[in-house]
Amino acid sequence: MPTARSPGRLIPNRIADGPTQMAIDALLLAQATEVPVLRFYRWDGPWLSLGRHQRHWPQHWEQLAKEGRLRMVRRPSGGQAVLHAGGLTYALIWPSAPRRRKQAYREACQWLIDGFSQLGLPLQFGDDPALGSSSNCFASSTAADLVDRAGVKRIGSAQCWQHGRLLQHGEILLDPPPMLWNAVFGEAAPPAAAANLNRLTLEQQLINAMAMAWPDVVWEEVPLSDDERAQVEARSRSDCSEFAGIDATI
After folding, report:
1. Is the pTM of this model over 0.70?
2. pLDDT value for 249
């Protein structure tokens, strides 16, 4: 984690479509200098994000998109497909992250472990091998993921490195929709998070956990500027093109 006292930037939560959310993450990574950035966000309806290098997927996903049951977008990070519905997504941009990938994952996830532990939901790193046999990110739990005591993968994370800077973002599984999950992945949805986990205050509790885990960073809420919003809009229009032919809503 950072060793010198420095500023940190919090981006206010925003509900938006997939291309917009991915464009924000990509922009924040591209313009990162010395200031770490943290944001949480939700999606405007069900979205299926595909990993940067995921070039093959079940044909019925495209049919679900044509029927308007979900929309598809590509992430700047790797890994397999993630269904964003009923959860909370986070993104951490860390300009001075450790260069060893496993170490970076562990240090970039510690605040999540601390935060959920304080909420009475202990999490630990997964230990499944990183296999590419499944198109579903939540089908296995690698050392990059966090599982609960029952072995349920509760947070799946992925990384993107650019000029030594790290973007790590992931999905916090809260209330996965059973019918849509089964339609997408052909299997039962993971169980919902504990009912006593307050969904409304979770984001602020995790921000507090980050402040405690990185005590030398002074976090300040700084919304996207007008210029950043314009750049995001331009990026998102470009990102829409890949799935324009199969997504009935684009």
Report:
1. yes
2. 45
